[in-house]
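Subject: sequence -> structure tokens, single chain

Hey, anyone have a minute? Need the predicted structure for the following. Not urgent.
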Amino acid sequence: MKTRLLIIFLIALLPLFGFVNNVQSLSCALPHLGEEYDESDYVLHGKVLEKNYHTWDSRMPVVTFEVLESFKGDASGQISVSVNETWDYNFEEGFEYVIFVQKTELALKIDQCSPEFLAFPSVVEIIRQVSISEGDMRSATSNIFYESLTEQEKLGFESINNTIQEKKVERWDSGSSQRQLTIIAFLLIIPIAGVSVFVIFRRKRK
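Reply:
Had a minute. Here:
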């Protein structure tokens, strides 16, 4: 009986762990571009060639970029980076972005608190200024990316965002059946595991 109660208690705690992680991840402040530039190993303008979800965590796909311009680091050709999609859907194939990349022991990554933005000409110019300037631009936050867009670029931004959201829904729909099977399998495993533990515990007591 005690074992069964312990299992139920642990299962009940799982949503709480997820909630705590989300709260922690949502605590990011807007970074200053100069600080983010200095703390990054690579800063570049790249085009998404491929997005691979076949990783240990479905929220951490690996995105391969074609390097169009490198502002920091020696990136050239292609670069593959792990991204965090816990909050939102960040990148889509065929579109160009300005990204800040950190190097870890295992891989290159784009932190969920790092700024990234569609690479409109005005945005790329801001990063060029940050890379060579010690002035006000380095103390600006990522809000300046959108504020700097021309009217034509803002129209393009809205159009591209709509396209990306449509692709997001398509990908979600195509993967929904697989997720449902995974959830069903997980829900079936819980009572089976609970019964197994209970039986083993009873046998040991005998």
